[in-house]
Design a protein that fits this description.
The chain is mainly α. The chain contains nine helices and no strands. The two termini are 30 Å apart. About 3% of the residues have low confidence.
């Protein structure tokens, strides 16, 4: 991959990372529930998920998944179920404010990483999107491993920044809320966003 090609992908990666979707909702939800320092661990899981998506596409498994009606449906409905589950859990979470030291009320780092990973890895829209975008920046005449590694690393970096901003914004909002009634409504709003993302995913169809 030439420098000019990488720079073009680097610019595109910012748009990809900042685009609203289940990943952004997951990052903001983590910031809302746990504060920035703890909630940012969710971003590590999101990045692991997107890197795995790149590996799947690079290995050719993404094309097989997109072409398989059964495989695509299984992954899609797993993603739908998980997003709806996250939405219901968010709505039912308690409404206690985050303390000044960002001490979480529940949720381990491992749980946050796992949650972020599952959000991205069970989203077949990500696979189809990468299948459409990534080949435009790949030179088949050159070794593919290094090119896919550069793409994965670039997406990981831009996601690290973008999801960090989403997490910080949500954590900042929560710091301004001290009334449990207001926090409860914020939980309901983010829970509704998760469920809406799940419904949106349910309407997604694989390419013929």
């Amino acid at each position: 991959m030439s420098i000019s090609t990488w720079l073009a992908f680097f610019v595109a990666s910012w748009a990809i990372s900042f685009s609203p979707g289940s990943g952004a909702i997951s990052a903001m939800s983590a910031g809302l529930r746990h504060g920035f320092r703890r909630g940012y661990w969710n971003t590590a899981g999101l990045i692991l998920g997107i890197v795995c998506q790149v590996i799947i596409v690079g290995a050719g498994l993404g094309a097989l998944l997109a072409a398989s009606e059964v495989g695509f449906a299984i992954v899609k409905w797993l993603g739908v179920a998980y997003l709806v589950y996250l939405g219901v859990r968010q709505m039912r979470s308690h409404a206690a404010p985050v303390q000044a030291d960002d001490t979480p009320h529940d949720g381990s780092r491992r749980a946050l990483v796992t949650s972020g990973f599952l959000v991205n890895i069970t989203n077949p829209k990500g696979t189809v999107f990468l299948l459409a975008v990534v080949p435009q920046f790949i030179n088949p005449a050159n070794p593919l491993t290094g090119q896919y590694a550069a793409i994965a690393a670039t997406l990981a970096f831009t996601d690290l920044v973008a999801m960090g901003i989403y997490t910080a914004l949500a954590a900042k909002v929560l710091r301004l809320l001290r009334n449990p009634h207001h926090i409860r409504w914020m939980n309901r709003i983010f829970g509704g966003l998760f469920i809406a993302a799940g419904v949106w995913l349910a309407t997604f169809r694989r390419q013929a």
